[in-house]
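Final report, closing paragraph on structural work. Over the funding period we assembled a curated collection of sequence-structure pairs, and we close with a single example.
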Amino acid sequence: MEKKVIVGGIIALFFVAGLSGCVGPRVTDYFNGSYAASEQTILTVTNINGQVEITGWDGGNVTVNAVKKSSFGKEELDKIKINVTLIGNHLNIETKYTGLATIQGSVDMTIKVPRTIHIESVTTSNGAIQITDTRGDIKTSSSNGAIIIDTVDGYVSAKTSNGRIEVKGTAGIKNIQTSNGAITVEVADFQDNVSIDTSNGAVAVYLNPSVNATLEMTTSNGKITVEGISLNVELLEEAHVIGSLGSGSRRLDIHTSNGNIQLIKLAIQ
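Its predicted structure, as stored:
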């Protein structure tokens, strides 16, 4: 019995020693920049680990305020770089990690953009994305975090592996997908066949009733309700509905594996 206690103490000692060699003091650094932009500017943002918030404003420049954090000391923090490059009309804001292992830190970005520029894509490996009062056919993607898009003059797509998605006030949508989270989306228009899909969560779709579309809605565990929209119904079941609006020329698939689906009339102003 005594030997077991001694061995346990040795293992615990090595564990503490290992941690002391890996974890350093928590450190923070700040990045601030301002970049000239025009109506022809096309913006892309790529972050590694952290949230991205983009808001339109009345200024003429793109401003970037970022906070870098690490619990592994300044040496590890210095391996996180924020690069801003302008190639032709393309303004690229990118976080890069120069270390050999997985990034040991995070970067949270707050970006203000002139409302006249075009945003092309916003990506983060781990964190939320929020975009408000901008323009562009924006592709958004996160490996883990919510995506919230509000008031965008363009057709937007959103994909996250784990988090809720909210989209409203856009010209239209492309594909909307999350592996785990609720979806609330306004669909004023869509140009190609699109899908709205979650593996686990409720789905609420506010649809412009004047679009030409064939809709198929399915849920593995939940029910489907339609409010204020007159579908030409082909199949009507509690968990599976097929119907069309107008000519039905485009396809809109709405699916959840676990949750209710609501199809609601979108009030067009």
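Residues 1-21 have pLDDT under 50 and may be disordered. The two ends are 78 Å apart (CA to CA). We thank the funder for supporting this effort.
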